[in-house]
Amino acid sequence: MGPFQGGMKDTRRASPPLTDPSPYDAAMYLTDRVLGRMNVARLEWAERAGWLANQYPFLAARMPIAPQENLIEELSAETDELGEFDAWKVYGNVKRKPNQVRSSRILGRFYADMVRRLRPMNVVEFGTAFGVSGMYFTAALRQLGAGRLWTFEPNVSWARLAEKNLAAVGGDFVLTVGTFEDNVDCIAGPVDLALIDAVHTSEWVESQFGLVVERCRPGAVVLVDDIDFSDDMRRCWKKLARDPRGRGSVAVAGHLGVIEIA
């Protein structure tokens, strides 16, 4: 079970609202919902190359059931029943229920599948939220028998609930109460797999992408969540998907960007 660490800093900013989706985006949203019920994730390639292209050769991929998936979903449901929690104070008087900020089951399965295929020793995640995505990572790492999750969450109340959830699933993890930027040097060893899921603006995501890529080994994979969050994030994903530091890039279920590092 990972220790809590200090150094929390108010760095999150509100993201711009998403404009009305195009007919294509609306159709793809409905398609992804239908495919998700079939345990299938749509793949939209930006750069079909490298290890990613070999692992996921088609335009869709069936997601196998994740290790301890039932337990993870039970813990998620129990956490959501606790009601609303204050968001980080930079947002003002805003509350969120855990299910409003969690990763979906289909993406949780993708995270576990990525661990199974990549066999990472160091997985980095920011932010933790209430621990759903982290539970999928740690459950898969535990089944693998190796590897550690390094996860960062500056919201103290959220982090404490996440810590309980992660501990219930087991596996090796370190949860830092603070930002990734302020605590990046605590990560031991090169990064094999990373999830950027903190502030959904291009300014923050591009900066965090640069920081994590500096610590990635060649062939590592960086995941960028909520690439459909706003027009700004859509543009950000298009830019990152063509970044010369990457080798292959694909969007999963229209929501998660995946980049293999060259």
From TrEMBL:
GO terms for biological process: methylation. Keywords: Methyltransferase, Transferase. InterPro entries: SAM-dependent_MTases_sf. It comes from the Bacteria. This is Methyltransferase. Pfam families: Methyltransf_24. One of its GO terms (molecular function) is methyltransferase activity. Gene3D superfamilies: Vaccinia Virus protein VP39. Residues 1-21 are annotated as: Disordered. It comes from Streptomyces capitiformicae. Coiled coil: none annotated.
